Amino acid sequence: MSLPLSPAARRYLGHPFWQAVGLLILAYAVIVFVVPLLPGSAIVPKSVVLQYMATVLVGVLIYVSDNEERWAQFKEPVHAVLIEPRLRLVRTVLLGAVTLIVGCITYGQVRTSVSAPPNLRSIHPAPPGEITFRGAAMTLTVLDNPLRQHAESLAAYTAEGKRIYYQNCLPCHGDHLDGLGHYASGFNPLPANFQDNGTIAQLTESFVFWRVAKGGPGLPREGTPWNSAMPRWEDFLTEREIWSVILFLYDQTGWKPRTWEKSETEVAK
After folding, report:
1. pTM of the shown model
2. What is the residue extent of each domain of the chain?
3. How far is residue 231's CA from residue 215's CA, in Å, rounded to a whole number?
């Protein structure tokens, strides 16, 4: 059972200006607080929030201005705050608030900060010889993708990797695996471009597994100061799911992973 609204509340809800304000607040809340909670989503970068809010603002302005009567109603509160003597206090408070906000933003952009000298960054830092994946030890040296040992199931594993990629990796790495996803512009450095011959084409699949499983938090010191923003996917994906995604990356881009050099003893066998 819904509570009846007062005449004042109905008047505000039916006014174009307050409808526009409400839509903007609702859009911001959805983008910042709701979207990150969706399966496969991540925190939306501030630059992306700004882009979406600008799009919503344009849509709201188009809506309120496509009708002369609605447009006139929309401008009434703005005109009243700017002109009417009875709203002088509100006008003063708004002027002070806007000035303070602009000043804080400007100060944040220009203030000096004390930070440690940056280290030389390695784009592809050397992986550790051994890692733990969900508590189990894995030796990266000479490790190959175990799914490739099942040739009859490669198509199914690749299809699984495609599904996982589009559920989890698309927002950053993009529909074309080129690092130009919707959120890409909000990161420094940009997400990896798998189409480039300087990324997975130069790496073994065990290296890619390490980077996906451990993400930015697993980078060694030489991977700083601009650490990858990629999360630790071992917290969300199983070992087989990560190997499946790796299969899909190489299949989709057409690159062949680097392989471990076999010793003379192995060659003789």
Report:
1. 0.57
2. 10-110, 130-253
3. 5
Closest CA to 213 of 198, 234, 228: 234
- Please give the structure tokens belonging to residue 208: 């890619």
pLDDT for the residue numbered 13 = 76
- What are the pLDDT digits (tens) for 20-66? 999 999 999 998 888 888 876 667 777 788 888 999 999 999 999 99
Q: How many angstroms separate the CA atoms of 192 and 111, rounded?
A: 31
Residue 210: name the closest of 233, 179, 194, 189 by CA: 233
- Tens-place pLDDT, residues 167-214: 999 999 999 999 999 988 888 778 999 999 989 999 999 999 999 999
